[in-house]
Amino acid sequence: xxxxxxxxxxxxxxxxxxxxxxxxxxxxxxxxxxxxxxxxxxxxxxxxxxxxxxxxxxxxxxxxxxxxxxxxxxxxxxxxxxxxxxxxxxxxxxxxxxxxxxxxxxxxxxxxxxxxxxxxxxxxxxxxxxxxxxxxxxxxxxxxxxxxxxxxx
Length: 153
Description:
Blueprint: H1 8-12, H2 16-27, E1 30-31, H3 32-43, H4 47-63, E2 67-69, E3 74-77, H5 83-111, H6 114-137, H7 146-152
Antiparallel strand pairs: 1-3, 2-3
Organism: Candidatus Faecenecus gallistercoris
Family: Belongs to the RpoE family.
Keywords: DNA-directed RNA polymerase, Nucleotidyltransferase, Transcription, Transferase
């Protein structure tokens, strides 16, 4: 049953995601803006609703497993796409990201000179010196155990 055959009252009972599912079944791939504009038109909502709620609509589609965002920026039904193809694309992208990260780390390591390494080591030594200075402030500190406290009272 297409949304054109449904009354406004019937459409109002459906969620935006359910209407999107019907639209994608009828027409195939569409962009977020195209889909949401068709929903706004079908429900006879003001254009200000489109402007203020399209981000929420995009988030709703992103989190719903029925829909998939394709590389060309259009949405389609996940049931029309095999999971093997989707997973292989994700795996390839992840491997590329890891390779780039490793190359960047290698470049950073090569760029660090011995002087830089010495300055990093020296700054660590200075932190230890600061700790020793604090211990001088505590030389007059007296520690009492519980028995001594009871005697003083």
